[in-house]
Design a protein that fits this description.
Belongs to the UDP-glycosyltransferase family. This protein is α/β, with parallel strands linked by helices and 337 residues long. Helices cover 34% and strands 12% of the residues.
Length: 337
Amino acid sequence: MSMPMASSSPPPVLRHVVMLPFMAKGHTMPLLHLTRLLLCRGLASAVTFLATPRDAPFIRAGAPRAAAVVELPFPSSAAGPQSMEDLPSASSFLDVVSASAALRPAFGDALAALDPRPDLLVHDGFLPWAKDAADELGVPRLVSLGMGAFASCVPMAVLAQKPYARVSSPSEPFEVDGFPGLRLTKADLSPPFVDPEPAGPHWDFICESGRAMGSSRGRILNSFHELESFYIDKWNREMPLHKMWPVGPLCLAGEPVRTLDSDIAAWLDSRLAMNRPVLYVAFGSQADLSRSQLEEIAIGLDRSDLDFIWVVRSKWFGQDEPFRGRFGDRVIAGGTR
């Protein structure tokens, strides 16, 4: 007796997906790319962004035309910065996280009013208060942090094991159990990850965010299995009820760049013709690097013998840029930003 062949039916289409990004472009852009992926592949019939009036124009400019944007206004009594762009550096991100909690009532009302009723919410891990409103309405949740598996696995292991207790010097390397070949130093970490008894606002945020993510259907990773198979498989074995779902690199779903500086384009074409790989180095719009850190990066790039594009910011240098001309034709100079 022959067995029936398994059908390869397509995955069910989500009726309505809601995106709730954190108020930072680096967190928002992966969700914009994910939206394009869901709509272009027919995996979702509708996608709606819930965003502040400050961030809504950026989302409208980058989202597919089929996506909707509903604004969540801050109450007039709200205090604190309403976007990461209001901060001098990313080190003050907790100020935005704290201020964002004022959006919870507006978020709950907007989520309840959406038609058709959402069957999935994708919210940023920096917005743990989204959990309660979604749970009250019975809307399943996935969490996005816009990053890969390594950045989730290793800090969790360090918090649990406290391997830094085995060393005395900030520069002395230590190993993390379960991660062969990985060696860190205290200098690689920052509080509260190196505090024997962590406490304070940052620790409270980590705990609250962890609880919200732990009760979700899993984490969306802006990565792919071939790149981080060890970390993804390890996490999914140990956290089977809160899996990682690698769906990246999501930038491949974005709109192709239509304009590129002609000098940069010609330089890239020349590297391609010589079969020389090009390294792209950037630290985002919120990084605040010191002159000594920039010098260390320059030394590393110099010793790498690789061609590269290095994105720097004018505020890092003042009136001069000491690295211009230092690397010859291995780098293309496109100015600072």
